[in-house]
Amino acid sequence: MALLVKLGQAFSHMCLYMLDEAIGYFNQLPARQFNTGWVFSQLGRCYMETTRYSEAERYFADAFRLEPYRLEGLEYYSTCLWQLKKPVELCHVAHAALERSLYAPETWICVGNCFSLQKEHENALKFFSRALQLNPAFSYAHCLCGHEYVYNEDWTRAKKCFDLALSYDMKSYNAWWGLGNIYFKQEKFDKAADQFSRALAINPKNPVLYTYLGMTMACKDALEEALMNFENAELLDKGNVLNKFQKANVLVRLGQFDLALKELDRLRLFMPRESPIPVLIGKIYKKLGKVDKAHHYFNLALDLENKENQKIKGLIESLHTQNEFNEDFDL
Asked: Which of 60, 72, 98, 173 could be 44's S-S partner, Cβ–Cβ 3.0 to 4.6 Å?
């Protein structure tokens, strides 16, 4: 009975997205019960939902090794490998799933994720749709279809998919995030903020949700609130480069140039070949009146970038005029 209580506590906390607590309860299980495919799969899911993909992959791989016949959980394992950009491992999982069953929706999600990683979004949609033929109430498959439609900029179909996902599972924070992402891309920032907030109310341990809410608040000129969200994301994931760059942008807009420069210097260590970083550093030095340093960083960006060369040249020319050149660069 005590064992069932511990398993129930772990699983109920996971369902409530109290993920660190769930991990703690799973780790309290006796070795014979802990070292099972089901427990490892749930632990992988806990880590994945907090974007700790490397730890998640380790547990998913252990579950796959221990119980290769288990298809439940492979949909999340394949998405984890998608996030880690590991096509070889993802193809291996998909082939194994195909050998086990052609009638399990998890199989076709694995295959769909393979094509999605290769940016073959139409093929990915075909396989995710096959998963839905086998289980029309599979909320996660509806979410994945929605993400593929977003890549294709088919907002209407994407929104329909996310709405369907929520009709089957109102606690699908992925679907709320997906709707927020659509509204963000459409520059409907009030609606985007509402959807991101709903996603965060479900899963407050996901740093990406804080980052996107912060980006939305920044677009609404609510800079202090944006900064608070970026700092919340940083508490959960110090290595999130998108969060660091967006935080630096907000610090610049708040006039906190020294803090922005510190953030960008740290970011350059992670991503030395991303031109938007030296561009933003150059803009800061221009605002500070340090033209030589600004010129140095714009030239660094010019050496790295091909597509945005004209914009960067415009920034260099603006150093010698009174005109402001306010082109934005995305990381």
From this structure: 60
CA distance 239 to 253: 22
Output the DSSP codes for 19-66.
HHHHHHHHHTS-HHHHSSHHHHHHHHHHHHTTT-HHHHHHHHHHHHHH
DSSP notation for 280-305: HHHHHHHHTT-HHHHHHHHHHHHHH-
Mapped onto helix, strand or coil, the DSSP state of residue 269 is helix
The C-alpha atoms of residue 317 and residue 325 are separated, in whole angstroms, by: 9
* pLDDT for the residue numbered 36: 94
Q: Give the 3-state secondary structure of residue 192.
A: helix
Question: Closest Cα partner for 29 from 10, 54, 50?
Answer: 10
Contact 242, 331 (CB under 8 A): yes
Cα–Cα distance measured from residue 112 to residue 214, given in angstroms and rounded to the nearest whole number = 31
SS3 of residue 85 by DSSP: coil
DSSP 306: S
Q: How far is Cα 16 from Cα 205, in angstroms, rounded to an integer?
A: 11
Q: What is the mean pLDDT of each run of 10 residues along the chain (331 residues)?
A: 83 94 94 94 97 97 94 97 97 96 97 97 97 97 98 97 97 97 97 98 97 98 97 94 94 94 90 88 90 86 76 82 55 51
Cα–Cα distance measured from residue 47 to residue 14, given in angstroms and rounded to the nearest whole number? 10
Give the predicted TM-score (pTM) of the model. 0.91
Please calculate the CA angle 308-319-273 and round it to the nearest 5 degrees: 35
- Could you tell me the two tokens for 173? 């924070």
